[in-house]
Design goal:
single chain, mainly alpha, Glutathione S-transferase Yfyf (Class Pi), Chain A, domain 2, Neurolysin, domain 3, five-stranded mixed beta sheet, 26 helices, 56% helix, globular
């Protein structure tokens, strides 16, 4: 039977035919994609034709069409619904893909062809349009960054390092998912679950049934903080849940410490080989920050005030604990429980009562999608004839303001034991004028699956996450570039979170809120006074949120700014290294651990953010400044949306992203808006 990935793509927008594709098909297609690109680039490297845009840049962009399609589909599927076969394929192919990428960036002949094109352009023999000039400059810069000028022996070591790192990252991702599933807590006494909602209990019962266990199972999310801690009245169970969360990867069958040590040391060696003092410098050089000095400066600017805010926030929580447990001291597992009590008392805001007004379908249709329609004129229609990569997926076709097809977006809302934690966007098909491709993007969340025939009710945090990830989707959907490698979210890591963070803002829009926040049974809108209260409470517990986020950013930087000779050499040193790092940087706060501890920090060890978790803060500077611009210019209007789209979202990585920002804003971003938002001014 023909591999569907190797046949002509006949589905609308070129979306992969997931039901027809076997795990073996993915492996074959990726391997064939490597072979085809290798052959295409070999022809490019040895060509006697003059270097032109068509013979070099366009030929290069066409060379990996199959490889990109296969990798995009496979990685989307694996992250959302893995199994043993997919884990094995990932672990086996990751080094091969790394070797392939390294072979390209160390091929002197390819570099020379790029240089030939640049020389001919400089001599006036070839005309480069702005996107082609930028692509050429970026490819040349990438070759220089990644070792083209290294001696042969050092290049050989570089190849080894890249393959080893890729394999270890793949293994890490498997261990983290397994560790999260293994850390779940079984409860057989219903009295211990006092405080949980009916939805919480139904989800816990379903989790127990899936595992063949009696009672209830409390499953973990990927962050240190567990949402159930805000509702569980049983203090011992809170402690048990917190301990299970924070201990993941620190020993046992799913111990990740050895991988941490090996990855940190290999990355440090790689950076030094490429001429950087440490891995963080290597990463910053490729972003908007440019230097770790800039990264450290912004972290130093915000962390002291965040600690002070958190210290103030702890005082009323300690008082509330004393009322329940005289003589006891506030602990990390108590914070969110008593913070919720404080929030309710101070603002008369019951966050659980809000859930009844936040059914997923309405939030999606009348909130997230409606906001995009209002800002950009795009519309959405269900495509029930198209299937995604799991049965949970729903597919929407997107049309532009003039009715033209624009994109597909695949929404995958529910948590599964086979799904990685958190929320994310992927691109199944990259937009490209060169290849005449319209984009296909995904939106992955981890909402608790409701009981049969019950609605999916969201927390306010879930709502913000959905808007956030859809901001990434919009960055992909609204891309309008020539080259697929520059499409959508193909921008520096410390810029990529910016559009998604801007999109969170629209969740708070009062007019939109009144539209989508409606009771799941009666359809009645959320009471106006609740909406106002929600706004007043917007920055409640901000100190906690800031400290847990900033301490994780600091932890990431310390791991990747430490020179090779000073890094831990043994798994037993990992936890002490983490503790000392937080203390040395002034962000050690016993009541608020980092949002991710070292041993389950997937962003930096298994994901795409090594030495880059600071990007959320860096992007928030741009986000806060942009929101200020929207406010100054009338807010959530079509005119403002079109300006943001045309000057920034549509351009992807086809030009210097900070130049696109300045064209949108008219000036450089001002950090004052972030400091005011975070209460750090």
């Amino acid at each position: 039977m023909t591999n569907p990935l190797l046949a002509e793509q006949t589905l609308p927008f070129g979306i992969q035919d997931f039901p027809a594709i076997s795990d073996a098909d993915w492996r074959e297609a990726i391997e064939e994609g490597i072979t085809r690109q290798r052959a295409a680039l070999e022809a490019l490297a040895t060509s006697a034709e003059p270097a032109t845009v068509a013979t070099v840049l366009e030929a290069w962009e066409r060379s990996d069409e199959l490889l990109n399609r296969a990798c995009a589909g496979f990685w989307t599927l694996k992250s959302a619904d893995t199994n043993e076969q997919r884990d094995a394929i990932d672990e086996q192919l990751a080094p091969a893909l790394a070797a392939h990428a390294t072979a390209i960036t160390l091929d002197r002949r390819l570099y020379d062809r790029l240089q030939q094109l640049q020389q001919r352009a400089d001599a006036g023999q070839v005309e480069l349009d702005p996107q082609s000039a930028w692509l050429l400059a970026e490819r040349l810069r990438e070759f220089r960054r990644l070792g083209i000028d290294l001696p042969t022996d050092q290049q050989a070591r570089l190849r080894e390092l890249n393959e080893q790192i890729a394999g270890l990252q793949a293994r890490w991702s498997q261990l983290v998912v397994a560790g999260r599933n293994a850390a779940a807590i079984q409860v057989t006494d219903p009295a211990r679950l006092e405080g949980l909602t009916e939805d919480d209990l139904a989800a816990a019962r379903a989790a127990a049934e899936r595992r063949g266990l009696d009672g209830w199972v409390l499953e973990l999310v990927n962050t240190t903080d567990q949402p159930l801690l805000s509702r569980l009245r049983d203090r011992e169970l809170r402690e048990q849940l917190f301990t299970a969360s924070i201990s993941r990867g620190d020993g046992g069958e799913n111990d990740t410490r050895d991988l941490v040590v090996r990855l940190a040391r290999l990355r440090a060696e790689l950076a030094q080989l490429l001429g950087f003092p440490h891995y963080a410098a290597f990463i910053a050089d490729d972003g908007c920050a440019k230097t770790t000095t800039a990264v450290n400066e912004i972290l130093a600017q915000v962390t002291p005030a965040a600690i002070r805010n958190a210290q103030r926030e702890a005082q009323p929580l300690q008082a509330r604990l004393q009322a329940d447990h005289p003589g006891q001291t506030l602990q990390p597992w108590d914070w969110q429980y008593y913070a919720e009590q404080e929030r309710t008392a101070r603002f008369r805001l019951d966050t659980e009562a809000l859930r009844a007004y936040l059914p997923f379908e309405r939030v999606l249709e009348d909130g997230v999608l409606a906001a995009a329609t209002g800002l950009y004129g795009i519309t959405f229609s269900r495509r029930d004839d198209l299937t995604g990569y799991t049965d949970d997926c729903r597919v929407y076709e997107v049309h532009d303001h003039d009715g033209r097809p624009l994109a597909l977006v695949v929404i995958d809302p529910y948590a599964r034991p086979t799904k990685q934690g958190g929320a994310w966007m992927t691109s199944l098909v990259d937009q490209s004028r060169l290849l005449d491709r319209l984009p296909v993007v995904t939106n992955n969340c981890n909402l608790a699956r409701p009981a049969p025939r019950q609605p999916t009710l969201m927390s306010w945090e879930n709502v913000i996450t959905l808007f956030h990830e859809f901001g990434h989707d919009l960055h992909g959907m609204l891309s309008d570039v020539r080259y697929p490698s520059r499409s959508g979210t193909a921008v520096p890591r410390d810029f990529v979170e910016f559009p998604s963070q801007v999109n969170e803002t629209w969740a708070w829009d009062r007019e939109l809120l009144a539209r989508y926040a409606r009771h799941y049974e009666t359809g009645e809108p959320m009471p106006a006074e609740w909406i106002e209260t929600l706004h007043r409470a917007r920055h409640f517990n901000e100190g906690y949120a800031a400290v847990e986020a900033f301490s994780a950013m600091v932890l990431d930087q310390v791991w990747h700014q430490t020179p090779l000779e000073e890094l831990p050499s043994s798994p037993d040193q990992v936890i002490d290294f983490e503790r000392q790092a937080l203390q040395a940087q002034g962000v050690a706060f016993p009541l608020i651990p980092p949002r991710y501890r070292t041993t389950y920090f997937s962003h930096i060890w298994g994901g795409g953010y090594p030495a880059g978790y600071y990007s959320y803060l860096w992007s928030e500077v741009l986000d806060a400044d942009t929101v200020a611009w929207f406010t100054e210019n009338g807010g959530m209007t079509r005119e403002n949306g079109d300006w943001f789209r045309s000057r920034l979202l549509s351009r992807g990585g086809s030009m210097d992203v900070m130049d696109s920002y300045r064209q949108f804003r008219g000036k450089d971003p001002d950090v004052c808006h972030l400091l005011e938002r975070r209460g750090l001014a």
